[in-house]
Amino acid sequence: MEIPFSERPGRHERHFKRKIDNPLFPRPLTHYSDDDLLEVQRLDHEEIVSFLDVLKKLVQQAINLQANEESQVVLDLKAELEKLYETACRLGDQQENNKAALRDLLKVIMATVRSHAGGDAKAEMELQQEDLARQQHFSMLEHDLVVDLLDTEGLILEDELAAVMLSEDEQQVSVALTMLDAEQRLLLAADAVRLIEKNNLVDDEKLKRRIALIRGDN
Q1: DSSP label at 33?
Q2: Which of 22, 39, 41, 115 would you call most buried, defined as having the most Cβ atoms within 10 angstroms of its Cβ?
Q3: Which residues of 101-140 are buried (b: 16+ CB within 10 A; e: fewer)?
Q4: Do 154 and 101 belong together in one domain?
Q5: Mean of the pLDDT values across residues 183-211?
């Protein structure tokens, strides 16, 4: 029996698929079994179960907030909700409802934070800037490559980064590159050039265009 890939894979299965028969990777997957695929799918499922448990606890914390709750308690809960939203974006299956619930909770928390600001104009401006930065960050998190690169557990290893940037969808790479400064992009491009030279792919037009994208050539 051949195990099918998930329609909406989580981070473990996504990285598993990146390496299949990909010579650019230092450790490509040239052979794998159903058991190998089932294992990464199991890991992704366990992360969903863990996420739902944390989500339930944070929802309860939000419900239990008092009108006069200490500011630090509110801010700590906000930070946990933002962190959990990033986790939700890495998960497999359909997480849109859970992400919407987290966004709604953050709106409620931010309303509480504003009430603590007491109408201070400077504080309100800073909160508006924070709201905008959060919206921009959440928008970036809709790209699988971005969330996988931000993954604190680091499934994408340092020596795999160039291979990932050469192999992934161009739109995903374009968004991910915005997280790097000019010097980091040049270093990454140099790694990518060495990689395609090592694999005798210097004449591959698609890879040459990807190098130019990474470098930021006009």
Answers
A1: -
A2: 41
A3: bbeebbeebbebbeeeeeeeeeeeeeeeeeeeebeeebeb
A4: no
A5: 95
pLDDT band of 37, cuts 50, 70, 90: very high
pTM of the model: 0.91
Tally the domains of the chain: 2
H/E segment holding residue 173: helix 170-177
Residue 210 tokens read as 């990807």
Cα 153 to Cα 147: distance, rounded to the nearest angstrom:
11
Structure tokens at 98: 């859970």
Do the domain assignments include residue 89?
Answer: yes
| Domain extent at residue 181 | 149-215
Query: In which residue are the tokens 């004449």 written?
Result: 203
Q: 181 and 153, same structural domain?
A: yes
Cα gap 29→172, rounded to integer Å: 22
135 and 194 inside one domain: no
> In one letter, which amino acid is 186?
L
With H, G, I as helix, E, B as strand and everything else as coil, classify residue 180. coil
As given in the structure block, the two tokens for residue 188 are 């990454």
Q: How confident is the model at residue 86 (pLDDT cuts 50, 70, 90)?
A: very high
